[in-house]
Structures are given as structure tokens and as C-alpha cells.
Amino acid sequence: MKDFSNRYIMVFSVVMIVSVAILLSLTALLLQPRQEKNVEVEKKMNILSSINVTSTKADAVELYDKYIRESYVINIEGEHLEGVDAFTVGLRAEQKKPLAEQYLPVFIAVDDRGDTLHILPLEGKGLWGPIWGYVALKEDLSTIDGVTFDHQGETPGLGAEINTTAFESQFLNKSLFRDGSFFGIKVVKGGADPQSSHEVDAISGGTITSKGLEAMVHDGLIKYEKYLSKNRK
Amino acid sequence: MENVEKEPLFSAKYRKLLTNPLGQDNPITVQVLGICSALAVTVKMNPAIVMAISVMVVLAVSNVVIASLRKMIPGRIRIIVQLVVIATMVIIVDQFLKAFAFDISKQLSVFVGLIITNCIIMGRLEAFAMANKPWPAFLDGLGNAWGYGWILIVVSFFREFLGSGSIMGVPVMEKIGVYNWGYEDNGMMILPPMALITVGLIIWVQRSRNKTLIEENK
Question: Would you place residue A1 in the very low, low, confident or very high pLDDT band (cuts 50, 70, 90)?
Fold first, then answer.
């Protein structure tokens, strides 16, 4: 191998870095619209699945427009905020803001039975990474009509079970409010009381994910307490 | 390497570059490199196939780039140059997956990025591409990536078939109807240790058929 001068090495490095930078920015720029579209479609599929509408990549946008009638952003006091698009609000970024400044998205859907449902997004921590989901509430704004959860990298067969129908369907018809005040849903290890309208079974072997999910549901929804109480029938 | 230029494109020597890594010089079963990702992405067949293709693209292209530049790359910074080339390729592949194979890119998550740290790639650049012309380097890249890829695909076949009862997402076991006879999927196959054991079984079979691979006990 030849011995190169220091000047050559400097020039070589600079040329290499500049060309790599140009190549990468071009790739990112050209592929960005497609990538954003993928993320948008996935979010719409998630929202739809919380109201039990099965969609595919091809028809998600169309079905979303059909079922989701309205979406808006409120604050912790339950007041509407103008000029913010609920769909583009990223919960992870919101959670870093002070509570009073957080944007809280609300999606209003009308399902095939003609019922109006409120869909609220959630974001929390599992064992290995973020978990998230959507909760659809019936017109009384307390009873759960459907949920959907997903995760980035929970353990397959254990924590990853939160996105299965078997787990999600337990939340059906549970209530968030007890005796007029916000209570949330308890994820119980070792068997939930089937009569209780506030308990679901945890996942065996997925304790930390289950606890994270319970905290996510509680902490995420209690921010909506004022809004929900105000609009409850 | 003096008379390389007179060689036909697929001479016996060049064909060996492609075929050796598949068997007796296999990066996973013989050199035991790249094991980490082999454990992580072999739960299902589809991600394993995409991972194999991604590694192939990264390795073949990086090998060609390094081989073409080999006389211009200053020896003192060659490792950094190799890393920059690999990292660039990996990011491009990752961006393409996010745009065109979103679901699989979510499943592969960090492991596409971790191709950068896959020892097979650095190893081939340093050991082969730095000393050879682009064409043999390209063949060497393809050969080694396939050597890595076919093991990944075989392991993922057994893990998906026995662990989830499906092949490439098609629920084969359910269609045969074995669940009605009381059969259950073996959940252990989904966990990482079973990938190691499956790779171990492949190594065992390979060594019992090819005695030259067995080290002498001293």
C-alpha cells in the first residue's frame, strides 16, 4: 500500500464526506413522500381498528374518510384549540411539554350502527420500547367500545400479545368512570374479576408490558377527564 | 493476480468465489460470523428473506466500491472509509425499505441499521475487496451474502413452521388440520435460543458430511 501525504488524506476525506452527504440527502428527499404516506396509512388503519373496522393498505384512506367525521385538539381543561390538525399531533413529543400546553387529539367517528364514538390516542412505555394504542368510547364517554394496541419491540409470545384480539377484546364494555369520577382500567395479574367493569387480565409472563399498558391507559385518558366529564350524558 | 484480466467472467476461480461461501467457507456455520442478526430476524421467513437481500445489496455494492477505490484509499484511514461506505449503503437500503416494504421494515426495526456492525461485511471489505478488482469483489460479495442468507432462510423456515405453524405467513398447519388432533405450536421456537440451537444443528450436519471442517483435538 502506498504511503499517502497528509494533504491527500485530508482532501480524500473531504471529497468522500461531501459525496456521501449529497447521495444520502438525495435519497432521503426522493423517498420522503412515500415514507410519510406509509406512516399516515398505518395510523389510519390503527384508528379504524379501534372502532372494529378492518381496513387494508389500499382502502384505509377511503374508509377513514367515511367513518371519521371530525377531529380536533383540546387542552387539559377540555377547551377546543383552533388551528391544530389532530391527525398530525405526535403524542410522544406532546408528553414532553408541560401539562397545560399539551395538545390532546380527539377523533369523532360514526360507526355502521349510527353511534357516535370518541377515539382517543394513547402512547406509553412497554418493557423494551414504546407501546401505543387507540381507545374508542361510546356515547356515554365512559364505556369502552373498542381498543387497539401496538408495540415496537415487546417480547414475542409475552408482552407482544397486547396487540392480539384475545387481549384487546377484554376491554369491551369496561368503564373508565366509577361513581362519577375517573378511575381507569386495572390490568390485574392472576385473574381479573369477570364481574368488574374496571379490570382486565394481565398477560402471563408480560408483567412489565401489562403494567406499562395500565399506566398508559390511565395517564393518557386522565388528561381527558375534564373534557369527558363536561360532555358526558 | 497478474493474469486476472485474461480470465473469462465466470472462470473456475471466479465461480469458486460464489460457491465456496455457500458451503465449506460459510460465514455463519464455518466462520461463525453475523450470528447476532441470524438470531434476531429468523422468527418469520419474510423478514429473513428481506434481511438476506438487504445484506446482499450492501455487501456486493460496498465490495465493488471499495475494490474500485482500493488504489486511492489511504491505508491509514481505510477502516474509516470502509465504514463510511457500508453505513451509506445501509442507510440507503433502510430508506428504501421504509418506502417500499414498510411492514417488514418495522419488523426488522434496528437490525437493518445493525448491518453496519455485521462482521461479515467489514471482514470481506478488509480481507478481499482491498486486494482485488471490482468484478471478483462483486462475486465474493454475492457469494458471502448468499452463504449468510441461505442459513438465515433455512433457520427461519424451521422456526416459523414449528413455532408459528406457518410458512411465509401462510398458516400451513391450520390448513392441514393438525390442531384438531391436539397438536400445538412449539412456542420455544420463537425465542432466540432456538435459533442458536438450529444453527448448531446445521453446523453438526455440515461437519458430519464434510470431515475436513473438523478441527483436530490436541
Answer: low
Question: Domain for residue A11, yes or no?
Answer: no
On whether residue A112 sits in a domain, the answer given is: yes
CA–CA gap between residue A79 and residue A75 (Å, rounded): 6
Domain range holding A176? 57-231
Cross-chain CB nearest to A23 (options B43, B88, B190):
B88
Dihedral of CA B13/B19/B20/B24: which sign?
negative
Which of B77, B96, B109 is facing A153, going by the closest CB pair? B109
Is the full-model pTM beyond 0.80?
no
Residue from B68, B83, B84, B85 to probe the interface with A (highest A Cβ count within 10 Å): B84
Total number of domains constituting chain A = 1
What's the gap in Å between the CA of A28 and the closest CA on chain B? 7
- Is the ipTM beyond the 0.95 threshold? no
Q: Give the residue from A147, A88, A138 showing the smallest Cα distance to A118.
A: A138
Asked if the Cβ–Cβ distance from A31 to B191 is below 8 Å, we say no
